[in-house]
Amino acid sequence: MDGTAIALSARLAGVTLLVLLPLAVLLGRWLAVTRTRFKPWIEGLLALPLVLPPTVVGYYLLVAMGNQSALGRLFEAVVGHALAFSFGGLVFASVLVNVPFAVQPVQRAFESISPDLREAAQCCGLTRWQALWRIELPLAWPGLLSAAVLTFAHTLGEFGVVLMVGGNIPGETQTVAISIYDRTQSFDHASAGAMAALLLVISLVTMAVSYGLVERLMRRRRSA
Amino acid sequence: MIELNFGRKLGALDLQVDVTLPSRGVSALFGRSGAGKSSLINAVAGIVRPDHGRIRVGERVFYDHDSGTDLPIEARGIGYVFQDARLFPHLSVAGNLRYGLKRARGTHTVGWDSVVEVLGLDHLLDRRPWNLSGGERQRVAIGRALLRQPSLLLMDEPLASLDAPRKAEVLPYIERLAREFALPVLYVSHSIEEVTRLADHLVIVSEGRTVASGELSDIMSRPEHAPLIGRYEAGSVLDCTVLQHNDDYALTTLRFADGQLRVPRIDLDPGAPVRVRIRARDVALALSRPMDVSIVNKLPGRVQQITPRDGPYADVTVDLGSRTLRALITRESCDRLGLQPGTPVWTMVKSVALDSRSVGFSRRPRSASPAQAPDLPQKPGAPAEAD
């Protein structure tokens, strides 16, 4: 077992979640109510990581983070080292790749809240922001939970993009998935197998628990 | 005063509103579905924005196109009871009620205890919206709107989505709240039965326009409004008081300005105010005092106006002295009896026609402020819960 890689993966998943979830709430809520005619294009753009090969996404991310790009140079000027092949770069890539996993459940959850209820909240004296915070967020809770679990599990399991933009630096960018690949290549089947089994169990348990919770929450809502 | 003077084009509907409503009592907006009643009330709430004009409630201007005033919904200080209760599904009944209370500004004139008591919510407080009946949900929604301490209560067909027994369950609560909490109510309905039981002031809405506005009994007594109210339902409204009961025959005698009416027994103490709606089609006319007929409600008067209707009908308004009563008879009968304005006639109303649908206890003597009202009528017993 590669403890360093496991810890790194957990840290990456946690940080990704912290950064992505607030963004997903704002973006998902906006997509749920917007009437812009560009909506299908925006949704399509956000869904790209689902259909593009990780190498394609990884390639573009690498270009974007390189010292030829404004983003890469800005990061290097502020932090002191390159964005590519660093933990920061990994977080950046991970957030982008996970956008569809976080935004879509949140968007569906907000779409399922009737605009009538928003009006009712305002008639009770709540401003739009108060209504979002006190009425819509609690009601969208199952969607947020799904988004969080999917993002977390998916980050643990991401391989291609991480390899492209992170390389394979132990303690910095070598996640569990990469470590398993490494160990397999070097015929360390005991370690690779143990980590693979661990990933399998964690993923299965988190998904099952979250599906169960969402199902229970939704059943209560439906009968309301 | 509540000044509503605005317009808005909404697809095929061209809403043109121009009415002034009293700042106390229940004002009903009555009209067929699609007439624009809901759009009108939504403009008052701030959900629909007018194209032009002005909305003012008392001293507060909600909307004024010329000065660019457009208060957001939450700043208007209104309570809104929707046709579907729209309770917050993640909160208990108490949580829903508290949402109204927490957001209320200024002094609280509507207390928690009185709302819970008047609407009979005590045993529901811990329940969740999904295990309430339709009628209970609507009562909670009314409570939530009241606790917001509104300066105006809007009700958009609050009974329309309920079946008849649930309607009968909720209606007395609405009658009671209008009496107990002195605040103006704007009540949208397409049911003349609800309107006559609840309203003091009546506005008729037709094809987006406010075509008539005035005191309920006055608007109802004018035959020119009959087509809008409906031939079956049109008639007169008389404000009466309970005189006495006859328990053997299960009848109640009511007194009004021009005489007495015998109706099927109603459970109110003598002296209680009652409002009776008499449909024009339930009134018959005779030239001399009818002697050997089963009908006991016989009132003398003079023909005031005869309005011919489509087909065989004529609408005859009879002046009873201080009140008028309308009769829908055939044009043939009208000619056979030789009726003309001024002709002395006897009006006859079957007691059986004045069933519980047409007799509702009215809330308070007209024009008396709630504080001065000497003796409020007996509170109706809370209807049995169908739990």
* Class by alpha and beta content of chain A: mainly alpha
CATH class of chain A: Mainly Alpha
Shape of chain A: globular
Number of alpha- plus pi-helical segments of chain B: 9
CATH fold node name of chain A: MetI-like fold
Q: Oligomerization state of this entry? A: heterodimer
Distance between the termini of chain A: 48 Å
Low-confidence stretches of chain B: 362-387
Q: How many domain regions of chain B?
A: 2
Helix content of chain A: over 70%
Euclidean distance between termini CA atoms of chain B: 42 Å
Strand content of chain A: under 5%
Strand fraction band of chain B? 25-35%
Question: What is the CATH superfamily label of chain A?
Answer: MetI-like
**What is the CATH architecture descriptor of chain A?**
Orthogonal Bundle
DSSP, total strands of chain B:
21
Largest sheet of chain A at a glance?
none
Tell me the Rg of chain B in angstroms. Answer: 22 Å
Can you tell me about this structure?
The complex is a heterodimer of chains A (224) and B (387). Chain A is mainly alpha-helical. Helix content of chain A is 81%, strand content 0%. Chain A has helices at 3-33, 39-51, 54-65, 70-79, 87-111, 115-123, 128-157, 160-166, 176-185, 189-222. Chain A is globular. With 387 residues, chain B is of the alpha+beta class. Chain B folds into two domains: 2-221, Rossmann fold (3-Layer(aba) Sandwich), CATH 3.40.50; 235-361, OB fold (Dihydrolipoamide Acetyltransferase, E2P) (Beta Barrel). Helices cover 21% and strands 34% of the residues of chain B. Chain B is built from nine helices and 21 strands. Chain B has a six-stranded mixed β-sheet with strand order 7-8-9-3-10-11, sandwiched between helices. A five-stranded antiparallel β-sheet of chain B has the order 2-1-4-5-6, with helices on one face. In chain B, a hairpin with a 2-residue loop joins strand 10 (201-206) and strand 11 (209-215). In chain B, helix 2 runs parallel beside helix 4 and helix 4 (134-147) runs parallel beside helix 5. Chain B is globular. The relative contact order of chain B is 0.12. Mean pLDDT of chain B is 86; it is low at 362-387. Chain A binds chain B through residues 114, 116-117, 119-127, 135, 138-139, 220-221, 223-224, and chain B through 45-47, 72-74, 77-80, 82, 84, 86-90, 99-100, 103-105, 128-131, 144-145, 148. Chain B: Residues 359-387 are annotated as: Disordered. Chain B: Keywords: ATP-binding, Cell inner membrane, Cell membrane, Membrane, Molybdenum, Nucleotide-binding, Translocase, Transport. Chain B: Residues 1-232 form the ABC transporter domain.
